[in-house]
Amino acid sequence: MxxxxxxxxxxxxxxxxxxxxGIEDVALDALSPGEVVIRTAYSSVNFKDALAGTxxxxxxxxxxxxxxxxxxxxxxxxxxxAFKEGDAVLCTGCGLSESRDGGYSAYARLESKWxxxxxxxxxxxxxxxxxxxxxxxxxxxxxxxxxxxAPDLGPLxxxxxxxxxxxxxxxxxxxxxxxxxxxxxKSDQADWLHSLGASEVLGRDALATTKxxxxxxxxGGLDNVGGPMLHALLAHTAPYGNVATAGLAxxxxxxxxxxxxxxxxxxxxxxxxxxxxxxxxxEVWRRLSSDWKPVCLGEIATREVGLxxxxxxxxxxxxxxxxxxxxxxx
Length: 330
Description:
CATH superfamily of the largest domain: Medium-chain alcohol dehydrogenases, catalytic domain
CATH topology of the largest domain: Quinone Oxidoreductase, Chain A, domain 1
Number of domains: 2
Order of helices and strands: EEEHEEEEEHEHEHEEHEHEHHEHE
Number of strands: 16
Number of helices: 9
């Protein structure tokens, strides 16, 4: 397949003219090096993308770069015999829109060591409904289970429940056989959260506590918020339960005590999806495409935009107005 001389991409700059981003035409030779070139079908919008695209967070390590930490499409060129023209592949994290050009581009060039052949149980659109958000939720569950998390310990609480990671975590955890309690400040989204698999929907205040330990209400959970919310989740976790932390939507600070750890044996588990080793990546995607694949992916994809719609999505996401996942259609 021939590649046009130039093609549209959403590129981010920071120089003497200031921090700015927008659509511009780029050439293949301008993209970061890699063995595999794909014609992009879909990307997605994550909180990290909104920070990078607006300059509200220090995400990019060099400039200019094309945004988008997720990408999926079909191979059009490959210097690696493991990939041939027409193969469907995906990539999440792995330096995209951080140290190399990302997925907000009609064509993307990937390092073959991080290109994932599309699992048989997913199509390209579904893979990007999941994207980094779903991969993060799946990785969290894998790490929880590696530390002996089981449904009989009690329900898993998910904070920041209406966001991308939160909504997918509800769907994935419930599909895997866990009771899930969604924690959200958006009471008007309760019916939607129930439809994703939450057995209970609780307001933020229901979890609040200043005690070092409180009643053991949950077997564990996934926190996407940080700060007092994470402290409260730890304080409410049952003996030998596990809490995974994957986000800082409220704050990166954490003021807590060691009491849950040394009295109840609670574990706090970090989830860092961007730099996950290849063997773990393959396992998470295997599970997400099979026994952990939610039946409600279509309900989680609440919005679909082209490159021109990205600035408005970024603003909405940073203002706390997003729900579920936004797909970027190339």
